[in-house]
Design a protein that fits this description.
CATH architecture of one domain: Alpha Horseshoe
Number of strands: 0
Largest sheet: none
Helix content: 55-70%
Structural class: mainly alpha
Radius of gyration: 26 Å
CATH class of one domain: Mainly Alpha
Order of helices and strands: HHHHHHHHHH
Number of helices: 10
Shape: globular
Distance between the termini: 76 Å
Length: about 200
């Protein structure tokens, strides 16, 4: 009995110490402080770091290679290093302004990085060069749908364009699924046309 009482007192004492520490420190013991979080972020290793380094070497060896520069830009963009990627995309497009793959990659990187207006311009340039660019229409629709506020009428129009180009491709099927989710599409094979929803566009 005495042992049980002593054990209970020890446990209560430990709990009291922990609660006091929480009260004084303002956080739970398992929570990281801002300084600890900053240290973790500084120690974070980009899984693409080695690939980026290797690609930078390839670009240095072939400084005029559009393919090598585009690959470096995409690696940087996919690693969240958009400010570093943008000059490489621009360099590629300066040499090959009609390279729609490069321009589409640039547009998607801009969109993923939150530069919606710049991304919209690049998507529009892709479509102006090739009105039947299914990817161009689809990803422009995605940009409109995820804008704040969403531009649903514009999104529905671009999804409809992407689906109309070829409803049986993977992109065409995704466009159709998006339209169905928005309540304005028809199942593939239906004779009824896709119509845009009655939604006012944001200014």
């Amino acid at each position: 009995m005495a042992f049980a009482i002593v054990s209970s007192l020890v446990i209560c004492s430990m709990l009291g110490y922990t609660l006091t520490a929480i009260a004084l420190d303002g956080r739970f013991p398992w929570e990281e402080s801002p300084a600890e979080q900053a240290t973790d972020e500084a120690n974070f290793e980009d899984p693409n770091e080695d690939a980026i380094g290797a690609q930078q070497t390839e670009v240095a060896r072939n400084p005029e290679s559009i393919e090598e520069m585009l690959l470096l830009a995409n690696l940087l963009g996919n690693s969240g290093r958009l400010p570093e990627a943008i000059p490489w995309y621009e360099r590629v497009l300066a040499q090959a302004p009609d390279d729609l793959t490069a321009r589409l990659d640039f547009a998607r990187a801009l969109s993923d990085g939150g530069l919606k207006a710049d991304a919209e311009l690049q998507f529009q340039r892709v479509i102006a060069t090739d009105p039947r660019s299914q990817d161009g229409h689809f990803y422009l629709a995605e940009l409109y749908r995820t804008s704040a506020p969403p531009r649903l009428a514009d999104a529905a129009r671009e999804y409809g364009e992407a689906k109309a180009i070829d409803p049986l491709t993977f992109v065409g099927q995704r466009a159709n699924e998006a339209l169905l989710q928005m309540g304005v599409g028809q199942p593939v094979g239906s004779p009824s046309p896709v119509t845009s929803p009655e939604v006012d566009n944001a200014p």
